[in-house]
Design brief:
Elements lengths: L2 H28 L1 H9 L3 H18 L40 E2 L7 E2 L2 H11 L5
Helix pairs in contact: 1-2, 1-3
Protein name: MYND-type domain-containing protein
Keywords: Metal-binding, Zinc, Zinc-finger
GO molecular function: zinc ion binding
Length: 130
C-alpha cells in the first residue's frame, strides 16, 4: 500500500476514534440526546476540516515525509468554504441577495467565505495550488 493511502487511512482512523471518544464521554455525562448531537457532527466536511489540521500537525512533526502533499479522499457535495465549511446564504437570507463564496485567485479550484479564511488556509492550500 502506498504511503499516501496509509496516511489517509491513519488520519481517518484517528478522526473516528477521536469523535467516538467524545460521543462516549458526552453520553455518559450528558445523556443520549447530547450524544446524538455529537454523532451528527461526524460529517464529510468535518472530516475534511479535521484532515487539514491533522495534516498540518503531522507535517510539522515529520518534515519532509510528504504529509503536506496528502489529498483528502473525501469529496464533499455542495460548495462550502475550504477552511471553515461555511456555505453561502440563499438569496434573501442575508438581505443582500445571498453571499457568494470567493475562489482562490491562482487555481480557482477552492472556495472561501472571506479573505480571512483564504489567508488562514493559504499555508495548507499552497502545496496543492496549481
Amino acid at each position: 500500500m502506498d504511503r499516501s493511502l496509509n496516511a489517509c487511512l491513519r488520519s481517518l482512523e484517528d478522526y473516528i476514534k477521536e469523535r467516538l471518544a467524545v460521543i462516549k464521554t458526552t453520553k455518559a455525562n450528558d445523556g443520549l440526546e447530547a450524544a446524538k448531537k455529537e454523532y451528527a457532527k461526524m460529517t464529510p466536511m468535518n472530516f475534511k476540516i479535521f484532515l487539514k489540521q491533522y495534516r498540518a500537525e503531522q507535517a510539522a512533526l515529520y518534515a519532509g515525509k510528504g504529509w503536506n502533499k496528502i489529498l483528502c479522499p473525501v469529496k464533499v457535495s455542495g460548495d462550502g468554504c475550504e477552511r471553515c465549511g461555511a456555505v453561502p446564504a440563499a438569496p434573501g437570507e442575508d438581505g443582500h441577495g445571498g453571499s457568494r463564496l470567493l475562489s482562490c485567485g491562482k487555481c480557482r479550484k477552492v472556495l472561501y467565505c472571506n479573505r480571512a479564511c483564504q489567508k488562514e488556509d493559504w499555508k495548507a492550500h499552497k502545496p496543492f495550488c496549481k
